[in-house]
Amino acid sequence: MGLLAGSQAFAQGSPPGGGPGGGGSGPGDQVPGAYASPSAIPKDPAASDIGIPKIDPLKRLEPIALPQRQGDLPAPDLKLPALPAYAPQATEPRLQIGRPPKSLVLTATLGEGGPRIPDQLIWRLFAPLPGPDGKLPLVAVARGGEAVFDVPAGSYLLHLGFGRAGMTRRIDFSGEQTRETVALEAGGLRLNATAATKKLIRSDALRFDIYSAATDDTDRRLVASDVRAGVVTRLNAGDYHVVSNYGTVNATVRADLRVEPGRITDATLQHHAAQLTMKLVREPGGEAIADTAWVITTDQGDLVRDNVVSAFPSMVLEEGNYVISARNKDRLFQRPFSVKAGENTDVEVLTSDLIDPNDPSLGSGD
User: Fold this and answer.
1) Cβ burial, residue 70 (10 Å; 0-12/13-18/19+)
2) Cβ(339)–Cβ(323) under 8 Å?
3) What is the DSSP letter of 153?
4) How many angstroms separate the CA atoms of 38 and 1, rounded?
5) Between 205 and 218, the higher pLDDT residue
């Protein structure tokens, strides 16, 4: 009813005339906007009391008969691409589900019939023929106590690494499941050192170099360098030449040692050396003078260490007789000193030990 009332109000606001001349209001002369009384609207016998037509309930529709096909129509000529163009066939052979893989399985022992090596092994398989670069192509790598290689049948060169120890041998793989044990003739070497006493030298002051055995030093091959004290170095069984360095100056000892297969060889070398801490003072027990340069020579004048600038230089020296020189502000101070094995000590050079640097009996003085 609200919508209807709004329409009537719009109609009443229109001009009363029917045409441009304001003529009669007959049915043929009505134009949009002309007023019509509600009583003049004919009633639909199917309408409700409020003027809205009644909606009949839906009726069930009867199926529509489709036209019958007259004869067989020809199939359309469709040109479709071949399926393999979109789904290429696999060129590799299919896996046979349920068939166990046939692998080459390798383990290692320490020596023939020795204990099995559980870990820390590096296995490398190489092709037996060199490549274009002259090197053997690497086929596969494995780490651990057991290596499992899924490789084609053929011959390979196996390199087995265990620390500094290693070996190379030929492996012929038939392509069938194969288990093989490799005997590695290797052992371990653990090194320590003392200085004229049974007390071990602290590990941070020691370093060892391990060389192959040889009658001449020029023929020795460096096997391992900067080996820390107390650490096991894995080596092939055999003879070795060991150099122990106590400090960084001249305290050095050597020894020839043998490594047995399947065993750790412990060796303790003995140094005849001591650690010295030096200072330049004006009086015994006095405060060290800074900006002092130090030179150490043997009592025969051979240079041992020079150009050490420090108020408290510390160094390890081999047992023997030395001359200690301290230079400060163009003045040279000097005193002789003897090093005794295992006796670490402080050495004081007094300013009263002043000498003439131009004295020819002192040599160069630096």
Assistant:
1) exposed
2) no
3) S
4) 13
5) 205
